[in-house]
Amino acid sequence: MRKIMVANPKGGSGKSSLAIHLASWFAQNGNPVCLGDLDRQQSSRQWLAQRPLSLRPIKPWDIDETLQEPAPAGCAIAIIDTPAGLHGKSLKRLLAEVDRVVVPVTPSRFDMLASSDFFDELAQIKAVRKERVGVAIVGMRVDLRTQASQQLLEFLQQFELPLVTCIRHAQRYVQAVESGSTLFDSNETAAQDRRQWQPLLEWLQKPCSTAQRLATPEIRRVQR
Questions:
Q1: 128: which of 70, 203, 212, 214 lies 20 to 30 Å off by Cα?
Q2: C-alpha span between 50 and 205 (Å, rounded)
């Protein structure tokens, strides 16, 4: 079973939104998926409880940070939503159990400062250094026309981690989540939004050693 962890030490960075969309996308593509929520707010779990039975199923995974509780039988993909403040032994323990880590970062000064320490800590962990665990960054609530978003892109250049894509802020995300669904559950999702997710989805399916060297050409052009 593949395990994908969504992590950022700061609350409000978009972890739950990212986690539920990944779970929904894998489910839509015929994968048996489970979703574990380690955050105290249990946003992902609450979303899952509202998910209509007419949509592709996603099983809940009742876990704690030790991951000792087995995943539901038959699951091929596990998405793990993590709590704010994740670091130290808890972070190392989770990294020993997962295949990929996706780090959402918003164009916020506080978010960038918290992420900087987190990236430094990740770089020191053996599983990441040896490329046994792939780590990628996703810009969340990004409008590439704004100065704040440009500052985010410049800030992320200093880290040896791929910025795979940027996801814009849109009201349709809020509306979808409130109904227990995601943009991937709708046939009316805008092509622009699907294009923004595609680089991340492709990155998740590549070997770790290859994926760690990737960044999307579109983002490179913006950075220059």
A1: 70
A2: 28
Q: Which residue has the tokens 């991951």?
A: 67
Strand partners, 102: 6, 136
DSSP sequence for 79-115: EEE--TT--HHHHHHHHTT-SEEEEEE-S-HHHHHHH
Instruction: Please state the pTM of the whole predicted model.
Output: 0.89
Place of tokens 């779990």: 45
Instruction: Please give the tally of structural domains in the chain.
Output: 1
Range of the domain at 169: 2-223
Backbone φ, ψ for residue 32 (5° rounding): -70, 115
Average pLDDT for consecutive 10-residue bins of the chain (224 residues)? Answer: 92 91 95 95 93 95 87 95 90 91 91 87 84 90 87 87 89 82 83 90 79 46 37
The CATH number for 160's domain is: 3.40.50.300
Q: Which helix (H) or strand (E) is 215 found in, with range?
A: none
**What's the rounded Cα separation, in Å, for the pair 7 and 16?**
9
